[in-house]
Amino acid sequence: MSTALHNLVNQPYQHGFVTDIEADVAPKGLSEDTIRLISAKKNEPEWLLELRLNAYRQWLTMEEPRWPNVKYPKIDFQAISYYSAPKPKKTLNSMDEVDPELLRTFEKLGVPMNERAKLAGVAVDVIFDSVSVATTYKAKLAEVGIIFCSISEAVREHPELVRKYLGSVVPVGDNYYAALNSAVFTDGSFCFIPRGVKCPMDLSTYFRINTQDSGQFERTLIVAEEGASVSYLEGCTAPKFDTNQLHAAVVELVALDDADIKYSTVQNWYAGDENGLGGIYNFVTKRGLCKGVNSRISWTQVETGSAITWKYPSCVLRGDNSVGEFYSVALTNHYQQADTGTKMVHLGRNTRSTIVSKGISAGHSNNSYRGLVRIAPTAAGARNYSQCDSMLIGDRCGANTFPYIQVNNPSAKVEHEASTSKIGEDQLFYFAQRGVGAEEAVSMIINGFCKDVFQQLPMEFAVEATKLLGLKLEGSVG
Amino acid sequence: MIYQDSKTLLAVRGLHATVNGIEILKGMDLTVRSGEVHAIMGPNGSGKSTFAKVLAGHPAYEVSGGEVLFEGGKLLELKPEERARAGVFLGFQYPIEIPGVANSQFLRLAYNTVQAGRGKDELDPLEFDDFVREKMKLLEMNPDFLDRSVNEGFSGGEKKRNEILQMALLEPKLAILDETDSGLDIDALRIVAGGVNALANRDNAIVLVTHYQRLLNYIVPDYVHVMDSGRIVKTGGKELALELEARGYDWVGAELKAGVRAST
C-alpha cells in the first residue's frame, strides 16, 4: 500500500480523553442484588424491577451469540460495573447548574448544550456513562405535547407510557445482549410524539462512556402516535482505554398509523489503537415496529468506531403499506471488526423495504454485512430492494456479505444487488496524474461510494459524517 | 512543428527503470522541444508504455538510473501530482474507472487543483460547467458525460475522448498520449486527433506512443522514434513511420545488429 493511502486511514482518535469527575460507581459484578441496587438508586416502581429481574433470569439461561463473523475473548460480566453516574452536587434546575467539568467535556466534543444548541435548533439529551445529565429544549417541545426526556425521568413522570411500550418491540428475552440490557439499563432517552404532531426540530441524544470499567447500557424508546413524525439523531464517543468496554444498548421505535420516524446515528466509539488494543464492544439491538398502516421507519447509520460492532437496526412491518428503510455506511480500519446489517420483516400487505449498505474496510479489519429479508405469508404484494456494496482499501482487510432471504408469499418481489470494489494504486495514480493527491482522491472516491447513504442524513450530520470518514481514513492510503 | 527559437522541454538521459525487479528501460535518451510532435513506435514489449508511465511517476516502476529534466528541473524528484501540476500529462492507454464519482466533479477537482498549483484562479461549479461544455464541443462529446461516473461503462472511444478532454482542461506543456488510437473506430480517431491538433501550439509538445502509422496520418509527427528492448534504436522523420508500416520492425533490429557488428 502506498504511504499516502496508509497515512490517510490512520488519523488519531480525537475524543480519547477522560474527564476527571466524581462518579457514583456501583461495585463490579452482576447479580440480582446489583439489579435491585440499580432499581433502588433510581427509585423505580415495582413493575420495572420485575421486568429487570425477569430479563436477568432469562439472560442466565442464554448463550452468548457465536454466529457473528467476529472474534473476541470471552467477556467477564463480573468484572464490569453496571452503574456509574457523575455525582450531582445538588438537584439540577437548569443547564447553568451542570458541573462545569461536564460542560467542558461536551464543549470539547462539539456537542451543542446551551446557546449553540439554540442556534443549531437541535434539542439534545446527554447521557454521560449511565445517566442523562442534561436535556435541552424540553419546555418548548412540551408546548406541542412532545415528551423528550431521560428514560429515568419518563419512568417517574409518564409510567403508563413507558410501561405500555417498553419491551414491546424488543422483548426482554429477545437475545443475549438485549436481555442483559433489559436487566441493567441505567438510562437513555425517551421521546413521545403525540397524535398529529410533526416534531418542529431534530431531537438528538449524545452518548459518552467515561469510566474505564463500567459498561454502558442505555435504553432508548421512541413512540410516534398516529400521523406524528420525528427525526432523531444519535452520536457516541468514548475515551481511549487499553481495556475493552462493553456497550449493550437497546433502541425501540414504535410508529402508529401514518407515523414517520427517522433515526440517524453517527457512531464513533473508541475503536482501539492501531494494534487492536482497547476499544468498545458495541453489541446493540435496535428495532422499529411499524405498527400502524402507512407508517414509516427509516434507519440511517454511519458506523466508524468500536473495536467490534454487532448491530442490526431492523424494521418489523406489521401495518399494511408500511415502509422500512436501512441506509448504512460501516467503516473499519486497523483491527476493527464489524458484523452489521438489518432485518426487514414483512408482515402487512404491500409493505416495502429498502436496504442500502456500504462497507469500507481498511488496514487489517474485517467488515461483514448480514441482512435478513423475511416475507411472511400474510405480506401480499411486499417488495424489497437491497443493495450491498463493499470497498476494500489495501490488501489485508476483508469484506463479507451474508444475505438471508425468506419469501413465503408468491406475490412478493425481492431484489438483491451486491458489489465489491477496491481503491487501488491505479485509481490513485489516475487522480495523481490529474494533479490530485491521495487524500483528496480517497475522500472523493469514498464520498462517491457513500453518496446514497449520506443523502439520507440531516444536513449537519452529513457534513460531520463526511469529515469523520476522512479523519478515520487519514493515513490508510499509501 | 519544429521552431527555430524553441526551448527544451524534456531531456531524458540514460534512463533505466524496472518493474517487479525486471529491467524494462535500458538507457533511454530523448529530447523534446516546445512546439514539437514526437511519435514513439516499436514492437510489443519494447518499453513504450513503461516510458510513458515512468515519466508520469507510476508507483509500480522504479527508476534505476539516468535522469529526466523537465524545463530544466529534475522531474524524477517530483511526486506524480506535482508533475501533473508542473504540466506533464499522460493520456492513459486504459483510462481508470472510478465508480460513484461524477465526471464533472472529477474534472473540476483536477482542473482546480492544477490551476491552484499554477497560482491561477479556480472555478466554481457553475463557471466550470460553462467552461467544460465549451471544451467538450471540441471533441463532439455529449453533455451527459458530465453526470456519468468517471469512465464507468464508457466505450473505448468515449474513454479516449474523456482523456483528451482532460488534456484540454489541464493545458499541459508536455502531453504523452499512450496508445490513444487503440480501440477507436475511424470517426472517433478523426475526432480525437482533431482535438489533439487543436491543442498543439508552439509552447507545448506532444509525445504519441503508438503501434500504428494510422494515427500519424491525422497527427503528423516531426520525429518518429523506434524503441526496441528499452531504448530508442532509430530516429527519423514522419516518413520513417510509413517505412515501418510497410516493412515491420524486424529490419530495424537487423540493421542495429549489423551496425553493432560493424563497429566492433
Terminal residue distance of chain A: 5 Å
Low-confidence stretches of chain A: 1-5, 89-93, 114-121
Q: Give the N-to-C terminal Cα separation of chain B.
A: 37 Å
pLDDT below 50 for ≥5 consecutive residues: which ranges of chain B?
A: none
What is the overall pLDDT average of chain A? Answer: 84
Shape of chain B: globular
Largest sheet of chain A: 11 strands, mixed
Query: How many helical stretches of chain A?
Result: 12
Using DSSP, what is the number of strands of chain B? Answer: 12
How many strand segments of chain A? 23
Largest beta sheet: strand ordering of chain B: 6-9-10-3-11-12
Q: Under CATH, the topology of chain B is which?
A: Rossmann fold
Strand content of chain B: 25-35%
Structural domains of chain B: how many: 1
As a percent range, the share of strand residues of chain A is 25-35%
- CATH homologous group name of chain B: P-loop containing nucleotide triphosphate hydrolases
Structural class of chain A: alpha/beta
Give the radius of gyration of chain A.
22 Å
The oligomeric state is heterodimer
Query: Which protein chains make the most extensive interface, counting residues with beta carbons within 8 Å of the other chain's beta carbons?
Result: A-B, 20 and 31 residues
State the helicity of chain B in percent bands: 25-40%
